[in-house]
Amino acid sequence: MFTTGAARGQGRSHAVRLAREGADVIAVDLCDQIGTVPYPMATPDDLVETVRQVEALGRRVVATQTDVRDGAAVQRALDDGVAQLGRLDIVLANAGVTSYSPAEELSEQMWDDVIDTCLSGVFRTARAAIPHLKANPDGGAMVLTSSTEGLKANQHMAHYTAAKHGVVGLTKVLALELAPHGIRVNSVHPTSVDTGMIHNEATYALFRPDLEPGEATRDDVGDPFQGLNTLPVRWVEPADITDAIVWLVSDAARYVTGIQLPVDAGATTQ
Ligand SMILES: NC(=O)c1ccc[n+]([C@@H]2O[C@H](COP(=O)([O-])OP(=O)(O)OC[C@H]3O[C@@H](n4cnc5c(N)ncnc54)[C@H](O)[C@@H]3O)[C@@H](O)[C@H]2O)c1
Question: What is the pTM of this model?
C-alpha cells in the first residue's frame, strides 16, 4: 500500500493498520513546515516512528520525505517503493494542510499552499499510481481523503473547502476512467479528527472565537453543543477513518466505486 502524509495522524494510523492486515507500506511525508500553515506539521522523527510501528508488525516499509506538491518526486518515491516491494494494490491520498482566513483576506500563498497539497497533491498521488495499479491483473483501490468540507461549507476555509470539493470531482472521474481496469476509487469525508491538524492554537481560535487568543484548550474545541457533530462526540479518532478505509479497499466493497463516504458523526446531515 501507498499512503501520503504517513508521518503522523490519520496517515500513520492507515499505514500501521494496513500493515497489521498484511500490507507492505510505501510511506511518504513532507516532514517539514509550510510557511502559511499556522500549526506545527510533522517532523522526520514522526516518520521514523511510523516506520518503527510498521516494522514492529513484521512488514516491510519504504519511507521517504516527499512533497506531494512535487509531481516528479511523488512519481519517483512511488516507483522506487514498488520496485522494492514488488506490487501496488492500495493507494491512500491522505496528505493535507489547512489555514484559516475569511475569503476576502485569503492571501495568494495561503490559497496556493492548500490547493497544491489538498487537491493537486491528491491528483499527483493518483496519477503516479495508475500505471502500477493497471499492471495488476485484479486491479486495486484508491481512497482519496476529503473532509466534511468536501460536502458542506465552513467559513474561513474557502481554499480548503474548494480543494476538498475538488477531490470529489476527481474521485468520480477516476472511478469512471479506471473501472474498466478493476480499479475502484472512493473518497472519505472525516469530521474533526483527533490529530495535530485540529489540536493547535489556530484551530481552537477558529472554533472558539469567543475566547481570548491562547486561552482555548483541547477541552473547549469541538463541543458537541456547538452543533458541529450530530452524535455527541467532539471529534473522532484516526482509527475511525482507518476502519472506513479498510472496508473501502477490501473485497467486501468490491462493487463500491465513485462514492463519498462520510465518517462524520452525522455532521453533514445538518
Ligand atoms: N484532522 C481533521 O480534523 C481532519 C478532518 C477532515 C479531513 N482531514 C484530512 O485528513 C488528512 C490527514 O490529516 P490529519 O488529520 O492526519 O492531520 P495531520 O496534520 O496530523 O497529518 C497530515 C500529514 O500530511 C503531511 N503533509 C502535509 N503537506 C504535505 C505535503 N505537501 N507533502 C507530503 N506530506 C504532507 C503532514 O506532514 C502530516 O504528517 C488531510 O487530508 C486532512 O485535510 C482532517
Answer: 0.97
